[in-house]
Structure to design on (191 residues):
């Protein structure tokens, strides 16, 4: 089973179908891979300025909106200087 | 169901998953479930310069519904066996 169990209480990166990237601590999930994130922030990527972090707080993300859930390596993530990163936002999912 | 079984035999192999947002991720296949959701370890994003979003991500869970392709190691698949199995499954489904 490709379960989300190992991610609970870890900092994760969520990529959504519309291309948004949200980081937060996974508080819980269910069978439909709906996910609750605590202390979540959206990371907005652009070519003109560094990554902007927008605080969102407690978020429930519907499973069908989720593309990918990645476990963040805290040390590696903190080592990254977000303000220096210029990148196109991820494209939305196209069926 | 057959493809689910095929993926189960491929665990611990190196695969590349192409998503429907054109992101390609290589990693070790850790597990699959009945929705073909995929767990990958030791991931690497192809064209990392364009997609730095996942720099600090080491393992991930990919939703089955957003997968476009999975590139498999040729050594991991017995195509003859798979061909026979798909035909057998087709016959058994046609009977029902």
């Amino acid at each position: 089973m490709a379960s989300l169990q190992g991610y609970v209480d870890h900092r994760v990166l969520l990529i959504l179908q519309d291309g948004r990237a949200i980081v937060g601590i996974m508080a819980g999930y269910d069978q439909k891979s709906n996910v609750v994130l605590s202390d979540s922030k959206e990371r907005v990527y652009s070519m003109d300025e560094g990554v902007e972090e927008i605080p969102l707080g407690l978020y429930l993300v519907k499973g069908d909106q989720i593309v990918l859930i990645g476990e963040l390596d805290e040390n590696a993530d903190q080592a990254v200087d977000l303000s220096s990163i210029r990148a196109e936002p991820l494209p939305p999912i196209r069926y | 169901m057959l493809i689910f079984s095929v993926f189960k035999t491929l665990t611990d192999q190196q695969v590349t998953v192409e998503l429907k947002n054109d992101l390609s991720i290589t990693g070790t296949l850790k597990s699959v479930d009945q929705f073909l959701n995929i767990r990958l370890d030791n991931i690497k994003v192809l064209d990392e310069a364009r997609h730095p979003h996942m720099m600090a991500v080491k393992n991930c869970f990919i939703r089955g519904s957003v997968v476009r392709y999975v590139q498999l190691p040729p050594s991991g698949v017995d195509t003859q066996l798979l061909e026979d199995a798909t035909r057998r499954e087709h016959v058994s489904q046609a009977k029902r």
Summary: Residues 48 and 55 of chain B are 8 Å apart (CA to CA).
